[in-house]
Amino acid sequence: MNIPNQITISRILLIPIFMAFMLIDFGWGDMTLLGATLPVAHFIGALIFIFASATDWVDGYYARKYNLVTTFGKFLDPLADKLLVSAALIILVELGFAPAWVVIVIISREFAVTGLRLVLAGEGEVVAAGNLGKIKTVTQLLAIISLLLYNMIFALIGIPFGEIMLYIALLFTVWSGWDYFYANRKGLMASK
């Protein structure tokens, strides 16, 4: 197994650790940093999420730079991303930081686009991530990180940045999902 795939697997292995810090009360108390007061365990959990999210860029860069792109990596990398983001979004619902309906729409879009990619792959077509999909990913990560950190920095000026970014992420999630299906409608119809 090559290094990019090992990095991807490490991202998956970080998910239960991230979840533990976000969902278990370790009794470590709270901390105040940059206008936000949050449990110490949540701060550590947020740092783990940030680190795990960064590994997505690292494994992709490394795989492309050293020509280590594999079929296994093409399958595992997006799966790891979806598992990490889905876990974080569900945790945000559990903590009361995100409406369940928003998270259901976002996760449903991820399943739908993954299904589309699998159908088209069966027809020999590869669906690459488009610009809207990349914007969707960035807005989702900004929303999740901000909410996991209790709107740190923005709490100083009273702006609910995480909540705003969550709805912007929702917009790009729906838009990019529609774009994937519209752009690939002929391939999807041909697979019937």
TrEMBL record:
Transmembrane spans: 6-24, 31-52, 83-107
Pathway: Phospholipid metabolism; phosphatidylglycerol biosynthesis; phosphatidylglycerol from CDP-diacylglycerol: step 1/2; Lipid metabolism
Topology with respect to the bilayer: Multi-pass membrane protein
Keyword field contains Lipid metabolism: yes
Pfam families cross-referenced by the UniProt entry: CDP-OH_P_transf
Protein location: Cell membrane
Keyword vocabulary terms for this entry: Cell membrane, Lipid biosynthesis, Lipid metabolism, Membrane, Phospholipid biosynthesis, Phospholipid metabolism, Transferase, Transmembrane, Transmembrane helix
One GO BP: phosphatidylglycerol biosynthetic process
E.C. code: 2.7.8.5
Family statement: Belongs to the CDP-alcohol phosphatidyltransferase class-I family.
Biological role: This protein catalyzes the committed step to the synthesis of the acidic phospholipids.
Protein name: CDP-diacylglycerol--glycerol-3-phosphate 3-phosphatidyltransferase
Organism of provenance: Planococcus maitriensis
